[in-house]
Amino acid sequence: MKTYKEFENKKVLVLGLAKSGESAARVLNQLGAIVTVNDGKPFDENPAAQDLLTEGIKVITGSHPLELLDEDFALMVKNPGIPYENPMVARAIARKIPVITEVELAYLISESPIVGITGTNGKTTTTTLIADIFNAAHKTAKLSGNIGFPASDVASKSTADETLIMELSSFQLMGIQAFHPTIAVITNLFSAHLDYHGSQENYEAAKWRIQENMTADDFLVLNFNQEKLRQKADQTQATVIGFSTTEKIANGAYVSDGQIYFADEKIMAVADLSLPGDHNVENALAAICVAKLSDISNQAIISVLTTFSGVKHRLQYLGEKSSIKFYNDSKATNILATQKALSGFDNTHLWLLAGGLDRGNGFDELAPDVEGLKGMIVFGETAPKLKDLAEKLGISVFASKDVATAAALAFEKADASDVVLLSPANASWDQYKTFEQRGDLFIAAFENLKEN
């Protein structure tokens, strides 16, 4: 960790705990700041606040008293999920107290260079691929950020000969000031988080902030399959490297005649990628760009891209039983995510497991993607809607009470060489606390099938 003295003896308010807030509070305390933590969860139900208190950090829990801001705070570090319209945040801004997110703090203290990855879809897979490729090349990389490892905690323990591979959400990027990756990636831009940002324009502007402090010595990797990102290539000081599955990119990664190239150098065949789906070809191209810009060998790239089994709950390959392959895509909490998952498989040999929380929407837009499926197993609140869709399309469909019984039923119905895919197209909250819990139960059901 860098010796950073700007926070010494200055009052800093950490608003909201969770992993990032807890990490920020500890790092700031270590840097000599006078830290106050404010979290809405009551103290008796708040183990993180209890731990911080024993470490000598002031904690205020159970509410967010506006009068707290009457203190002379030099900085607020807010949880990324807290909107800027929040009364505490709004008052801090009105009083000209700088408001940052924890990734800015991570940048300020990091001795390691940062590779930052953002975008609507594919962030986690691309981030993980890049880290795995670095490590395969014996260049130590550490995952950090929105992927589940608080950036400031990882940065505080990193060294100059390591690289932080940092997944960044739009929420986190809204709270940066000096943040400066040496390489940045924008995987794609689709409609998302409009309830937080208010408009697609605001959402995309938040994502674009990843490059705002970059210079010509830095590299910005953009998805040239999207015209909106291609058009942004001349709106940055960074050196732009494109990737595309449809055309040659002179200084980037692309697909031609079933082969993946970087510039004019052939890397590998598309057919050798371990992850299915056109979207995962894009993720691989983005990872290849970062790897080649970092002087990593093709051998290391190929070793990862041919064996990578997916991020947990994100089109994760679990294995097979009786020549039936199982994939866990519990992270697919909306129709678009399921459409992307389905694009990587042959429907005539695919059993789709779908269903979950009913948010009032229909599923007609999924029809072209599920047409020709061998079968569907549906569960949860939306099971009747999905069953209606399948019956309209002449797809064999069966109802099940949950993902565990759905896995068993799919195995019973499937034949050798079929694929069983959990890709729910719905949130999990009707039956499960999180999509992770839903996916874990599916994994457990598969493991049980393997053992019997």
UniProtKB/TrEMBL annotation:
<feature type="binding site">
    <location>
        <begin position="119"/>
        <end position="125"/>
    </location>
    <ligand>
        <name>ATP</name>
    </ligand>
</feature>
<dbReference type="InterPro" id="IPR036565">
    <property type="entry name" value="Mur-like_cat_sf"/>
</dbReference>
<dbReference type="GO" id="GO:0005524">
    <property type="term" value="F:ATP binding"/>
</dbReference>
<protein>
    <recommendedName>
        <fullName>UDP-N-acetylmuramoylalanine--D-glutamate ligase</fullName>
        <ecNumber>6.3.2.9</ecNumber>
    </recommendedName>
</protein>
<dbReference type="Pfam" id="PF08245">
    <property type="entry name" value="Mur_ligase_M"/>
</dbReference>
<dbReference type="GO" id="GO:0008360">
    <property type="term" value="P:regulation of cell shape"/>
</dbReference>
<dbReference type="InterPro" id="IPR005762">
    <property type="entry name" value="MurD"/>
</dbReference>
<feature type="domain" description="Mur ligase central">
    <location>
        <begin position="117"/>
        <end position="291"/>
    </location>
</feature>
<comment type="pathway">
    <text>Cell wall biogenesis; peptidoglycan biosynthesis.</text>
</comment>
<comment type="similarity">
    <text>Belongs to the MurCDEF family.</text>
</comment>
<dbReference type="GO" id="GO:0051301">
    <property type="term" value="P:cell division"/>
</dbReference>
<keyword id="KW-0961">Cell wall biogenesis/degradation</keyword>
<keyword id="KW-0131">Cell cycle</keyword>
<keyword id="KW-0573">Peptidoglycan synthesis</keyword>
<dbReference type="InterPro" id="IPR036615">
    <property type="entry name" value="Mur_ligase_C_dom_sf"/>
</dbReference>
<keyword id="KW-0133">Cell shape</keyword>
<keyword id="KW-0963">Cytoplasm</keyword>
<keyword id="KW-0132">Cell division</keyword>
<dbReference type="GO" id="GO:0005737">
    <property type="term" value="C:cytoplasm"/>
</dbReference>
<dbReference type="GO" id="GO:0008764">
    <property type="term" value="F:UDP-N-acetylmuramoylalanine-D-glutamate ligase activity"/>
</dbReference>
<dbReference type="InterPro" id="IPR004101">
    <property type="entry name" value="Mur_ligase_C"/>
</dbReference>
<keyword id="KW-0547">Nucleotide-binding</keyword>
<keyword id="KW-0067">ATP-binding</keyword>
<dbReference type="InterPro" id="IPR013221">
    <property type="entry name" value="Mur_ligase_cen"/>
</dbReference>
<dbReference type="GO" id="GO:0009252">
    <property type="term" value="P:peptidoglycan biosynthetic process"/>
</dbReference>
<keyword id="KW-0436">Ligase</keyword>
<dbReference type="Pfam" id="PF21799">
    <property type="entry name" value="MurD-like_N"/>
</dbReference>
<dbReference type="GO" id="GO:0071555">
    <property type="term" value="P:cell wall organization"/>
</dbReference>
<dbReference type="Pfam" id="PF02875">
    <property type="entry name" value="Mur_ligase_C"/>
</dbReference>
<feature type="domain" description="Mur ligase C-terminal">
    <location>
        <begin position="313"/>
        <end position="425"/>
    </location>
</feature>
<comment type="function">
    <text>Cell wall formation. Catalyzes the addition of glutamate to the nucleotide precursor UDP-N-acetylmuramoyl-L-alanine (UMA).</text>
</comment>
